[in-house]
Amino acid sequence: MHYHFTYMNLEKNRITDVNLFSIPIAAVTMQQTVARIAAAIETNTELQHVVVNAGKIVAMQTDAELRDSVLDADLINADGQAVVWASKILGQPLPERVAGIDLMLNLVKMAHEKGLKCYFLGAKEEVVKKVIDVFSKTYSPDVVAGYRNGYFKGEDEEQIARDIAASGAQLLFVAISSPKKEIFVNKYKSIMKVPFVMGVGGSFDVVAGVTKRAPLWMQKVGLEWFYRFAQEPKRMWKRYLVGNSKFIWLVLKERFKKNR
């Protein structure tokens, strides 16, 4: 499997936020996001990044630890098309969706071009090994600082954080489910001292070829969730059907508040 990734030129951009559901979401394009991250790495400024979609925004309403860890991030992107639509309905339009997997692919390419190193944490052992193989063949093994699967106990966490610090990585991609991912990053960021940290959800599975991504037209019309649901209905029905219904209700409540 050989990947060809598109990459946007970096430029200096000022980032502004919109406030949706009391979450400061960056009103930026993919190009501006990559530029902001590159600038942080160049100046060795730690930048904690997180993406939010409809499901995570719903979970944040009742999970205080998840909410705190998201709000503690320096840069919050809208990963889901539903969030972009909600921003328009609520009169604070976001320019576009910055999908986590697309951002990761752009950043690994940037790392290769700039001689930076990435650490990959999460997924099953065979999956993360395949990810390392794909990126090593697409670019060079030099882009990989290290990797570790996502199956570990609480007592292992601090050592993993120290291993990441020792790897010399400038970018850390974490493919662990929420809220464990956000909580781990928030708890150990002072030990890891990686300039850029990003949670990437199921992106390793896509790069490794374990799951397929929706066709581009489905992504554009906001049906990527349905494509994923169709692949794994037993595992995904509650997350998407129940979660999406709750998100629609949240948007309607916000809209009614504004109308008042």
Multimeric status of the protein:
single chain
Strand order of the largest sheet: 4-3-8-7-5-6
Helix content: 40-55%
The number of distinct β-strands equals 8
Overall outline = globular
- H-E string: EEHEHHEHHEHEHEHEHHHH
State the separation between the terminal residues, measured CA to CA.
54 Å
Rounded to the nearest angstrom, the radius of gyration is 18 Å
Instruction: Figure out the total of helices.
Output: 12
Mean pLDDT: 86
* Classification by helices and strands: alpha/beta
Q: Please indicate the percent range of residues in DSSP E strands (runs of 2 or more).
A: 5-15%
**How is the biggest beta sheet arranged?**
6 strands, parallel
Low-confidence stretches: 1-14
Task: Describe what you observe in this structure.
The chain has 260 residues and is α/β, with parallel strands linked by helices. The protein is 52% helix and 14% strand. The protein has twelve helices and eight strands. The chain has helices spanning 30-42, 54-60, 64-71, 81-89, 100-114, 125-138, 157-167, 180-192, 203-207, 216-220, 224-231, 233-259; strands at 17-20, 23-26, 47-52, 75-78, 118-122, 144-148, 171-175, 196-199. The strands form two sheets. A six-stranded parallel sheet has the order 4-3-8-7-5-6, with helices on both faces. It has a two-stranded antiparallel ribbon with strand order 1-2. Strand 5 (118-122), helix 6 (125-138) and strand 6 (144-148) form a beta-alpha-beta unit. Helix 2 (54-60) packs across helix 12 (233-259) and helix 11 runs antiparallel to helix 12 (233-259). The longest helix is centred in the C-terminal third of the chain and has 27 residues, at 233-259. Mean pLDDT is 86; it is low at 1-14.
